[in-house]
Write a structure and sequence with these properties.
By secondary structure, this protein is α/β, with parallel strands linked by helices. About 40% of the residues lie in helices and about 15% in strands. An eight-stranded parallel barrel has the order 1-2-3-4-7-8-9-11, surrounded by six helices. A two-stranded antiparallel sheet has the order 5-6. Helix 2 packs parallel to helix 3.
């Protein structure tokens, strides 16, 4: 296993000023670099406390790049449907150069109806826009005098500057929440995978990983060269009861934030998102049930180590874990404690840990 941190703010101005949240996150970036974490990631969302403090992960990651030299920098994920591919390819290539080749570029489809409405994009077009956007970005990264004649965009011949630092381009990840088809398509295309175990059962996720790995191997790529990243909220404290108390509070606030963000699904249907109307009921989820199902990493160092060992047994020792340590509701000191206890008391005792 490898470990990094992911920032997914679920606070707004009523909870914490944006400059304070960003300052705290950058303090934790410094700590991630110091403690040997593998990566730092930031999400892309709009308008709501659910991710709304991060409309552009590239901006945050550029700030992180300027104060680090080792840790990798990941979008988690940027949304091709909401931006022209020439703009997106250029922003990401620039970040790859600023960081001297430390960018991991993850792309996602988005799923919040209010975001699509604001951008004037029909939700039913999300998959086709995603596929076209990712392929157009890759062409701009890898070809001189690149041309594109797509359904939604056209350009060329143009040669993107700067060229990506990494050759032929930064690692490309596809972020998927529930779709088995998306996992299969990612494997066939040679894209790495990001997902959130919290939104499906252990058995469903195991089957999606089986399909993804099979498609990756069937496409002629070497088994084990794929990267699979999972995201988990994480709170660690010396005392397990203290960690659970803080983790429960954080999970309650996170659940309230996502409940408000997905409320539009109560009156929205889309052929591109079958079953997503059920998201309107997400506020009914229970902390204890999620903790028992290993959907959250919360407890004392020994308790979290046992949780991680179980996750490795379920999904394989080659996965990478992105730890959500600072949604903004707990203090930055709590997040730093989590990171230090993991690095000093959990990871060294894991036979699967690789940094």
């Amino acid at each position: 296993m490898r470990f990094g941190i992911v920032f997914f703010p679920t606070v707004g101005p009523a909870d914490k000023p944006a400059p304070q949240y960003f300052d705290e996150c950058l303090q934790l970036v410094d700590l991630a670099e110091e403690l040997g974490y593998a990566h730092v990631k930031m999400v892309e969302h709009y308008f709501f406390p659910y991710g709304g403090y991060s409309p552009d992960p590239v901006t945050f990651l550029a700030a992180a790049a300027g104060r680090t030299s080792r840790v990798r920098l990941g979008t988690s994920a940027t949304i091709p449907a909401f931006v022209h591919p020439v703009k997106l390819a250029g922003k990401l290539a620039m970040l790859d150069n600023i960081s001297h080749g430390r960018l991991d570029a993850a792309f996602g489809r988005a799923f919040l109806p209010d975001e699509f409405k604001a951008f004037g994009i029909p939700m039913d077009e999300s998959k086709s826009r995603f596929v076209e956007g990712v392929e157009a970005v890759k062409r701009l990264w890898t070809e001189e005098n690149a041309e594109w004649e797509g359904t939604y965009h056209r350009f060329g011949p143009v040669t993107l500057l700067p060229r990506p630092f990494q050759s032929p381009h930064p690692p490309v990840f596809v972020t998927t929440a529930r779709s088995a088809d998306s996992c299969a398509e990612a494997g066939r295309a040679g894209h790495h995978l990001q997902t959130v175990p919290n939104v499906m059962s252990t058995e469903e996720l195991q089957e999606r990983l089986r399909v993804y790995r099979a498609e990756w191997a069937a496409s002629g790529r070497s088994a084990g060269s794929e990267q699979i990243h999972f995201s988990y909220p994480c709170v660690v404290a010396p005392d397990g009861a203290e960690a659970r108390r803080k983790g429960r509070f954080d999970d309650d606030r996170n659940t309230a934030a996502i409940s408000a963000a997905v409320a539009a699904w109560a009156t929205t249907t889309s052929s591109a998102y079958p079953g997503y109307e059920k998201l309107a009921d997400i506020g009914r989820s229970r902390f204890d049930e999620k903790l028992d199902a290993k959907k959250l990493l919360i407890g004392s160092p020994d308790q979290v180590r046992e949780q991680l060992e179980q996750i490795a047994d379920w999904f394989g020792e080659d996965i990478t874990i992105s730890l959500g340590v600072h949604s903004g509701h707990l203090s930055v000191e709590d997040a730093a404690t989590t990171m230090r206890l993991l690095a000093e008391e959990v990871f060294p005792k894991l036979s699967t840990a690789a940094g």
